[in-house]
Model the fold of this input.
Amino acid sequence: MKTKPYKQDNSALGYAVGVTLDRFIKSHQSHFPFATGELSQLLRDIALAAKIVSREISRAGLGQVTGAFGATNVQGEEQQKLDVVADIRFTRALTKGGEVCAVVSEEEDEVIDLQNSKGKYVVAIDPLDGSSNIDVNVSIGTIFSIYRRKTPIGSPIQAEDVLQKGSEQVAAGYVLYGSSTMLVYTTGMGVNGFTYEWSLGEFFLSHPLMKTPSVGNIYTINEGLFREMGETIKSYIQQCKEMGYTARYIGSLVADFHRNLLKGGIYLYPSTKKNPNGKIRLLYEANALAFIAEQSGGMATDGKARILDITPKELHQRTPLFIGSESMVKDLGSFYLNL
Ligand code: AHG
Ligand code: MN
Ligand code: MN
Done:
């Protein structure tokens, strides 16, 4: 019989559909050191919870999921209903999967022991980042870090399992619920971004091997806190203006970080009078984004040290955060060094 070889032709589709997240994870599994498939399954669990949360968020104006939950979290911040919903969805997905033994969440004061006797991973998570933007239909996100536990599998969870340096992360990522939903993650071999196609219920690779520009012209900071800031950061902001940089601030770290990752820029959350250690949490906000920043060619510091080198002392520890394009973060660092 006469045959012809298959040649992919996307011209009639108008767009090319990439490889699915599932297939991508499977095909890269062998690259992980000591790969046994659990980390792959864990990433798939996170993706599943992200789809569910994405669905809840897209209905936010309709259902009963907007507004305050009526409680405060351990940091004294008012919890929104979606903070709590997202926390439940992610924790449940991680529990069912069985690969994770413990979860550190922004919404839980203590470490959650998932009672998975075989779980060899620890997850730190900000289930819903940018809570103040939920009710006003502005982009929000989820941030996660994955660590291998230090103590033997099956033994009680210890502080050393959860208080690991960012440099010990085996994977990290974020989900951005924006004009589309995206999952961006790294396992230490580059950063890949996947866009959710809701009608097919799949994430597709849309941003392979993301690289951030080494310099950009965006600075991202809550300038409303200017009076609360130290002289160093004030003079850096002044320089940004003199350089003609553009100011962009969404107030959702994930969204602000993602824009700067693609376009080039610097995100700054310095220490302030009210928050001497800044506002961003080391374990479930700064570390994951610092890992992604570095893997995409960028940098992340607290003004003095590399974020990934900080040894955490507390679960909900805060840190000043300066993150983004390499030359901009270096330039910011020179302000601090010249003190
Ligand atoms: P969360 O909603 O998880 O508590 O995080 C909010 C964080 C971060 O997303 C954002 O960049 C920052 O808080 C905004 O803080 P300000 O309102 O002080 O600018
Ligand atoms: Mn957050
Ligand atoms: Mn949050």
